[in-house]
Amino acid sequence: MKQYSQEAIDEANMAIKTSLPYFESELKGTWIRPTETTKEQVIATLDNIKAKGFNAIFLETYFHGKTIFPSQTMNKYGFTVQNELFEDFDPLAVWVKEAHKRDIKIHIWFQSFYVGNQAPEESASSILAVRPDWGNKTKKYAFSKGATKSVSEHNGYFIDPANPEVQDFLLELIEEIITSYKPDGINLDYIRYPNASSASDQNAWGFTEYARNDFKQLYDVDPVELTTADVHWYDWNQYRRDNITNFVRKVGNLGKEKDVYISTVIFPDIASALSTKQQDWRTWSKQGYIDGFTPLFLTYDSKMLASMMSDVERVKSEDTQLFAGLFVTFMGGAPEDLIRQIYQTRKMKANGVILFDYAHTT
């Protein structure tokens, strides 16, 4: 009985895998961190991506504080001009040109306020080595030199969204990418403050010298003196959320000007996004700053996925498209779990799916 039951389950799962139709109009994307260092390698990967049925790539282009292409903007600021892995090669130019030959759209996966977990002193040209004043800090380490590590995020470092110089730099970098390479879209990731996993105000982020002085001019109080019980703590939360929102607005305006699609990676629980990451994606949608959301659905259960998608649908504007970011393969789920999730996104009329990530697809 056990043997026959397992055979029945296996056959049922095979039926699931072969029964879901292919929709030509549906966006079928994948996030991908490039490792290819020659034109031939890029072409081989793209041919494989095309054969698997994908029609969009979310290519990690600026990550860990470095670009995969030789950047004039990075050079202007005295930062590492290009990720060392791609020295003497411009992979982004090849990715965009060859992808478009295959009718595959290229969205730039862009790690906005995250600059990786390499200690600043390990590279004299890293962003935080050149501009240590840009580093984000928790309240606990507000008076310490240098940036605070985000323990809950691979001991990584973040830069300060409140600082207008940080925003100007990132905006220049995005404009350089759009102007020089003409991608189809920009996908803003880490468009938030670091994760504040504890309710303690000591673990809250944003207590940089610039932000503290700026907030003090507005409210006549240094936020480092506040506790979560103070009335101005709400103002401090809103101040930080507005910093992120203002940057999203600027990128959105640039996208409209250059006719480039702007999407953002968001956390689907709006209450958690607001309280632990200062990410007010509801406002981005209602104000029309962005074109689409690519939420992180960290589950391999289709019912949980439906619940999380409903959370986003209830809050976002009708004009904001929704592309479900599915993590089944990354989390070790079975192929039939992924098929069930794709079926669920179609039932709920999502605009498409993006798989995280290409390295874990089969």
Give the helix/strand layout.
Elements (H helix, E strand, L loop, with lengths): L1 H18 L7 E6 L6 H13 L4 E8 L2 E2 L4 H6 L13 H11 L3 E7 L15 H4 L33 H18 L3 E5 L19 H11 L12 H27 L2 E4 L5 H8 L3 H6 L5 E2 L2 E2 L4 H14 L5 E6 L8 H13 L4 E4 L7
Parallel strand pairs: 1-2, 1-10, 2-4, 4-5, 5-6, 6-7, 7-9, 8-9, 9-10
Antiparallel strand pairs: 2-3
Which structural class fits the helix and strand makeup?
Answer: alpha/beta
Number of helices: 12
Q: What's the gyration radius in Å?
A: 21 Å
Assembly type of the chains comes to single chain
Structural shape = globular
In N-to-C order, the SSE pattern is: HEHEEHHEHHEHHEHHEEHEHE
Portion in strands:
5-15%
Q: Which stretches are low in confidence, meaning pLDDT under 50 for 5 or more residues running?
A: none
Main sheet overview: 8 strands, parallel, barrel
| CA(first)-CA(last) distance | 31 Å
Mean pLDDT: 95
Helix content: 40-55%
How are strands sequenced across the largest beta sheet? 1-2-4-5-6-7-9-10
SS elements, strand count: 10
